[in-house]
Amino acid sequence: QAKDDGRNNFKFYSPDMNRKALERLKLETFLRVAIVQQQLSVYYQPKVSVLSGKMTGMEALLRWQHPELGFISPAVFIPIAEETGLINEIGDWVLRQSCLQARLWQAQGYDIVPIAVNLSARQLKQDNFAARVVTILREAGLDAHYLVLEITESMLMSTGESGLQILEQLRDDGVRLALDDFGTGYSSLSRLKNLPLDSLKIDQSFVRDIVTDPNDASIVSATAVLAHALNLKVTAEGVETQEQLDFIRMLNCEEYQGYLFSRPIPASEVVKYFLPD
Ligand code: C2E
Ligand code: MG
Ligand code: MG
Ligand code: MG
């Protein structure tokens, strides 16, 4: 039982904490099995031009279907993969899978669009990360311009100068960078200015009530002005209704992503959104 009488500093774990720790341990073990048994797959969610309504890109999103537990959300297992270091292996796999899929679509004659893959801080901390990405692209036979890496503000805070150098290297190699979940972390404007970014994704928490909450509307509006001043494209996340879409159009966002156009879907369903070549 938890014990804290002020005289000693140690505490025993409460039964509840114990249960959580056990669940984590179980998930970690399951996740290792999942990698080996190929229970992981990649879904793709279109990014859409606000003006034309056409698909301009897509984001790769990891899916885990466990034979007994069913669908496990990346919001649950990615943090565990990050803590245990499994994210490096999983992250490499998602990158390779996405690049191979894009190359396959291209070989099938589709006019492909850039494909965005989410990164974790831990991946950026591998000092050979830029070289790994280049190798994956080369092995897949995919031009670097078709790859976008999504990074977050908090990632940048934790990886510091060396992380920035890796990102600059990747940018020089032709890979594009997007800043994900913008507005939820802390990034100073000076830092933003120095980043080799192509686009900025406004977090869905600001988009959700954009029509009814003037504060959210102001935040999105100001973010779009800032982004455009820095020559960045703006993508609104989590657009679910026509009213939200009309609103972000008014605020000059170029691109959106959300259930209104499409949920994340398996590769086989993506092809209907490619334009005829
Ligand atoms: P994210 O990168 O910000 O991805 C957007 C999330 O919003 C996805 O959740 C997507 O399914 C969801 N979403 C898209 N449109 C809508 C909408 O209109 N309404 C609502 N309510 N949600 C929408 P998902 O797939 O569950 O992924 C959650 C997070 O897990 C991602 O957030 C990302 O941070 C992480 N993640 C997913 N796949 C990977 C991966 O391969 N590597 C890494 N490092 N992280 C990943
Ligand atoms: Mg993302
Ligand atoms: Mg996002
Ligand atoms: Mg988000």
UniProtKB/TrEMBL annotation:
<feature type="domain" description="EAL">
    <location>
        <begin position="24"/>
        <end position="277"/>
    </location>
</feature>
<protein>
    <submittedName>
        <fullName>Diguanylate cyclase/phosphodiesterase with PAS/PAC sensor(S)</fullName>
    </submittedName>
</protein>
